[in-house]
Amino acid sequence: MTPDFTGTHLWDRLCWAKENLEPHQSDYRVVYEDSIDECAKILVPDPNWMACALQGGILPPVEVYWELAKDEAQPDFKRHTRGYLLHETPPVGPMTEEEAIEYLIQKDVPQHVWRNWDEGNRPKMVICRKQQLPQTRVWRNAWRISDEIKVAA
Amino acid sequence: MAGTIVADTLTHSTAGSLTTDYVVNGSAKAWVSLNGTGTAAIRDSHNTSSITDAGTGVYYSTFSSAMNNASFSGGSHVIGLSNGDLVATGEATAPTTTTFRVGCRTVGGTLLDPEYAMTNVHGDLA
Predict the structure, then answer these.
(1) In this structure, are residues B30 and B61 in contact, taking their beta carbons and an 8 Å threshold?
(2) What does residue B100 show for φ and ψ, rounded to 5 degrees?
(3) CA-CA to B60 of 20 to 30 Å: which in A98, B39, B54, B89?
(4) Which H or E run contains B39?
(5) How many Cβ atoms from other residues are within 10 Å of residue B105's Cβ?
(6) What does the pLDDT look like over A22-61, one tens digit per residue?
(7) Is A73 exposed, middle or buried (CB count within 10 Å of its CB: 0-12, 13-18, 19+)?
């Protein structure tokens, strides 16, 4: 059972999770394109992070990361002054693996990709299984989402 | 939180003392070991929410608990078991408080996927 981590520094919560939770290797991958000049990128969930997401009571709401990203985007940004949001905002409850992937997309994929993933001529992002990804790197470097993989409904 | 010890100084029976600032400031705040071959995979980590495979030999790691600023120190090491000497590079991208990028190149400068890419980050947490 997760201790009551209210007000506990997020890093300390992660230390507890590392000590007490079994890592969870997810089969899900997120493929996205954030630049027309670069190949598709592949987001790989971290097994220890995924264990935290499934357990609940450890990770802050994803909106906290958006607030910090807003601060960092300011031209005069030097250091975070609202880091307490990570530690003092009540943590979110347990997620399913699919909910955890949605959270991770909103945290680690650039916002301009996931907010408009289905706008334009073709999708910019797709969630798939690891087994669906091409194993050959030479091919993958020239890979585009709509050519090789279908978008899940 | 149960089990908490509050201490400003650690003292060894014969080797002297040091303040716990050394421990707090000297500990790595994030680390990850990944396999870049095939479809990239994370072996183990701490304070990492994901890695992103951004093309041959180029990876981002993203932190769960953000750094206080982007002036932290990051170190990387890469090993290619069948590719001779490799060099870890920064790939011309400035770090942010939540991301750190590492590249892997041969001594000749060609990007290459290593069996082991390992990074660690030191600095202040937000």
Answers:
(1) yes
(2) -140, 130
(3) A98
(4) none
(5) 19
(6) 999 999 999 998 887 888 899 999 999 999 999 999 999 9
(7) exposed
Coil/strand/helix, residue B77: strand
Of A11, A79, A104, Cβ closest to residue B50:
A104
Domain residue spans in chain B?
28-122
Q: Which residues are within 8 A (CB) of B65 and not within 5 positions of it... i.e. 6 or more apart?
A: A9, A10, A11, A14, A86, B29, B30, B47, B125, B126
Report the complex ipTM: 0.90
| Contact between chains at B52 and A133 (C-beta distance less than 8 A) | no
**Single pTM value for the model:** 0.90
- Residue of A14, A20, A86, A140 to mutate, testing the B interface (most B Cβ within 10 Å of its Cβ): A14
The tokens describing B31, both together, are 């680390």
A38: CB partners within 8 A, 6+ apart: B54, B55
Q: Are residues A14 and B64, on separate chains, in Cβ contact within 8 Å?
A: yes
Helices (H), chain B: 21-26
Residue type, B43: R
User: Residue B74, SS3?
Assistant: strand
